[in-house]
Amino acid sequence: RLYSRIMDVEDRWSEPFYNSVRESIISLLSFVVLNALAYLLIRKYKRQRESEDFYTDEDGSVAYGISLWLCVFTLSISLESLLLLPLSIMTEEVFSSYPDNDYISWLNPMLIQSLWNQVFVCSNICLFVLMPFAYLLIEAEGFSGWKKGILSRVCETSVILILLGVCAAVLTQLGIAFWSQRSPFSVLEHWPLYFEFLYSVISVFGVLLTVLCTPIGLTKMFSVVNSLLAKPKFLRDLDSEIHLLKLEVDIVSKQLQDSKSRNNNNDIGRLTARAEELEFQKKDIEWQQSASGWQRNVFYPLTIFYVLLLTAVTIVMVLVNVLRLLMMEDALPVVARDAFLDQSTPSFIGRLMSVVELAVTLYVVVASFTGFYSTSLFTQLRPVVQRTSILKIIANCVVVLILSSAMPVLTRMLGLTRFDLVGYFGSFAWLGDLRVVLSYNLLFEIMMAVTLTQNVTRSLVKELQSKLQQTWTTW
Q1: How far apart are CA 334 and CA 431, in angstroms?
Q2: Rounded to an integer, what distance in angstroms lies between the CA atom of residue 466 and that of residue 461?
Q3: How far apart are CA 464 and CA 472, in angstroms?
Q4: Among 129, 152, 219, 397, which one is least packed by beta carbons within 10 Å?
Q5: 46: helix, coil or strand?
Q6: What pTM value is reported for the model?
């Protein structure tokens, strides 16, 4: 009996140590994997180092390398923020289905909450420290009178970043004082609230941007599927398209030869770009022609049905959430549960809802980024393979970080998932304001209705115009 008591005491003392080691190992493994994936993505899109404008000496090369690896780290945090909510949904379902299984006992609430808190802290560091440092380091030239080198650039960047931090701290202090109706000097006692308040403001902007872009992306998903998959033959006449394309290629080739004989550089650049675009279209049509029957007649209709079903489910879930906000007091996503992993016996309906939430969450993530890069305002920010400068990579990393950090808040606020916000993500004060949350939900439904109406109307008008032209030609 004494031995068993000693072992119980030892287990209680050793359990926090083992939990800490387990969390550290899992965090390290996820960090390594996501950094490798982020590096591969940036390597695919970044321009060659020698073609950068600032790459003139060894200092520029070092500054380029530092900024590039800071972008890799930021993108890895963005990927972890995007994957954390689907991972948490799957973890909750697995843990509730097999609560007594020793092989999955490491999937405990402490681990998931630790990962959420790490993502929150790292997102703050990347957004307010690392990305500004990467941009300023690229633009820095060193203090005048100092010896040229990377140390001079780092010192100049650090001084500018500190000054910007002081200005941001003063503005944040005034904002907190205005928000809490307290004296600005009394807010100094609560200086840790600076980052939380500033990140809360950024999250409001990120969620608003995501609410505006996601409906656009949901309607664009149909055109994306049409461009990536092979259509059935009765929906697209590939023979006539390839014939017209060959005629246009011949015309552009003759015009390009004529421009080269006259040394017209403007026309040469324009016609060369058009020739490359036509070559890409030709390869796409040739791939469409070589597609098999099951790709045309089975895979394409199933994919269109899947996209249509997910779009309809998303609209219905947001509409139901609006009704819940109007009729129920506990529908606001302001307070996270203390133990978010429900250990009750799962049912078939619960498992089905988890699968639906997981599919809708991943679909909304893809649609939000599709809608963002499809808008005319941000089209120039879209990365191009092997042609993206380091400054544009930094801008894209900042945008992806803001959108990915807002994604858990967006899905919970729109009612797309039952999974409550964990850690610091559930501590935003504006999530408890019914008017703000309801306004975001209504704005999403309005944008969805407007974009769907515009796309349907545009398609009908184009079809009517083509029918009228065919009738006029025949007549």
Answers
A1: 5
A2: 9
A3: 12
A4: 129
A5: strand
A6: 0.80
